[in-house]
Amino acid sequence: MRIVLASKSEVRKIILDKNGINSEVLPSNIDEKEVKISLISKGATPMLISKNLAELKANKISLQRPNELVLGADSVIDFNGELISKPLDRNEALNILQKLNGKKHQLISSVCISKNGSMIWNYTDAASLTMKELNLDQIKSYLKKVDDEKLYAYGVYQIEAGGKDLFSKIEGDEDTIMGLPIKKIKEYLNNL
User: Fold this and answer.
1) Domains identified in the chain and CATH numbers
2) Which of 30, 65, 100, 101 is deepest in the core (most CB within 10 A)?
3) CA distances (Å), 58 to each of 5, 14, 66, 116, in order?
4) Average pLDDT in the 143-157 region?
């Protein structure tokens, strides 16, 4: 089975490879910020925003690759109904971690498989994460360990690379937290 991954996420590609799914990476390069602004103005929830972005990414690339299966994915943080996106700079990353500090939030990951420009399957999963109560020095120390490329590509914490230490409680699938609920994707692909 071969699919096209409409994402430049190295972590998503690694998850597919580890699970024996042959994939070609072809990022969609959609303007996520514009889509989010538009959806928020219409009252969309973080979950709906995640679903829409995954579908937009998959549909865009599947128009370019007829008859191929294209996987789009998107992950967002839902903090009491507020959408928290990837930070644009280190100051914003610090502010996000301070906001989440000592509190519970949901990480939502949506996936969509499209063919010939239309969605043929989708799935959304959420995990709950409770951040430890950390002081400012601990938060800054964590951020120093995360390089810019990963911080801006994957958000304020990487569960697979030391981010686990930020949390007192994690409820949910680790693959969902890393951006790809692979068990459901494999179930779907195996049933094709």
Assistant:
1) 2-191 (3.90.950.10)
2) 100
3) 8, 18, 12, 10
4) 76
d(CA 59, CA 79): 28
Two structure tokens written together for 166: 């930020």
% residues pLDDT > 70 (the chain): 97
127: pLDDT strictly greater than 70: yes
Catalytic positions are 74
Give the Cα separation of 40 and 62 in Å (integer): 26
Cα 96 to Cα 33: distance, rounded to the nearest angstrom:
17
Nearest to 46 by CA among 95, 102, 105: 105
Report how far residue 74's alpha carbon sits from residue 88's, in angstroms, rounded to the nearest whole number: 17
Rounded to whole angstroms, the Cα distance separating 46 from 65 reads 29
